[in-house]
Amino acid sequence: MHTPLTETEARVIGCLIEKSIVTPDQYPLTLNALTNACNQKSSRNPVMSLTQGEVQHAVRELEDKHLVRTDENFKSRTEKYAQRFCNTRYSNLQFSDAELAIVCLLLLRGPQTPGELRSRSGRLHTFEDNAEVAAALTGLAERDPDPLVVKLPRTPGRKDSEFMHLFSGPIDVEAHASQAREKQAAAAPARSNVADLEARLSTLEAEVAAIKAKLE
């Protein structure tokens, strides 16, 4: 597998894959277009606020890893960037359309369930059902010689387990599960406080209604 990607590098690769599929007429991307794609408020998790300098630095690092190609227009002196990460003659990673959509979404949005991947993949690939998503995930998880995604322990309160890519290195699934439990425990008092407030409000509304009835 390639040298592990940083968070910014993963975002850059994900954006280049996404735009090559959904807006092929605008691909490869200029630095400005790539920066805007990285910083989108929608379809991104986490939302980033990268500068053009940070994006360009990530591009240079990816060039050194032979994962990005730079095309230069010598008349306008404008550089445009294309990915060499997968599905090109320069890459060992060749994915089906279904696998490519999943890889792209995981790079852009982090851990997701099969249902989330299916609902968010519309512009990249149309999955018939969650079973088709699961089949593609299984293929990526059992990839030879190295797995490319991992199934995470199911977060309490969620119906399905999430999957995450491994392009940024191995994931400590037990640490992930522990963090999920801590977040849920931290959120529990807040939910309890809201429930208490709602109960008190209902009681007050009932008392006010009773007083109004007596006055009438």
Can you walk me through this structure?
The protein has 216 residues and is mainly α. It has three domains: 7-83, Winged helix-like DNA-binding domain superfamily/Winged helix DNA-binding domain (Arc Repressor Mutant, subunit A, Orthogonal Bundle); 97-171, Arc Repressor Mutant, subunit A; 178-216. The chain is 52% helix and 9% strand. The strands form two sheets. Strands 1-3-2 form a three-stranded antiparallel β-sheet. A two-stranded antiparallel sheet has the order 4-5. The mean pLDDT is 91.
Topology:
Blueprint: H1 7-22, E1 29-30, H2 31-38, H3 52-64, E2 68-73, E3 78-83, H4 97-109, H5 114-120, H6 130-141, E4 149-151, E5 163-165, H7 173-215
Antiparallel strand pairs: 1-3, 2-3, 4-5
Helix pairs in contact: 1-2, 1-4, 5-6
